[in-house]
Amino acid sequence: MYEEIIAKLKFDDKGLIPAVVQDFYTGEVLTVAYMNEESLRITLEEKMTCFFSRSRQELWRKGETSGNRQHIVSIKADCDFDALVVKVIKDGPACHTGHESCFYNWLYHDESKTDFSIDALYELIKGRKTEMKEGSYTTYLFQKGLDKILKKVGEECTEVIIGAAKHSKEETIFEISDVTYHILVLMVEMGISVDDIRKELDSRHVVDHKVKQETMQ
Questions:
Q1: Contact 35, 50 (CB under 8 A)
Q2: In this structure, are 86 and 127 located in the same domain?
Q3: pLDDT value at position 206?
Q4: Could you give the C-alpha distances from 154 to 93, 126, 175, 178, 186, in angstroms and in order?
């Protein structure tokens, strides 16, 4: 099925093609690596990324030693057939340094533009638990422990119900934001990642889609 596309790919004079690896859920660029035809075929067959190391001059399967494998969702070639975009669901950090992405060294950032994401907020909260920054409310919650965190989650859930019962959209948005933050704190406390939740919700989506198809038959 993919032989026609492979035949059109323009590998360079060393037999390589750049592959931009992207997080399927967040769209974040995780790394840029290189593939030759053999590693591309392995990737397609095993449904996990396999690259060609230019420094070691050998094939390497991502996560072979670290366990941080990348499961393939899609692979697309660009208009010139000389570059690939590979979307993956990752088992762990993409970078050997432990960072979620290899791209973490800022050259420039327009601070007037926000780059909010649930993942970024989760990482910030996780950092608070590690650093225990003095004066931080998040640090205070971690210091008080699980019982305090659970109490706050319960209180904020109640506030969501009250806001929604009043048919107040603004108040409900505010309270949902509060409960989301406290749930993220709970997740960090219990070692639950955002990807754990994504995978659980994704599995439910697959089941729901299958049931829907069976119902329509």
A1: yes
A2: no
A3: 61
A4: 32, 21, 12, 11, 11
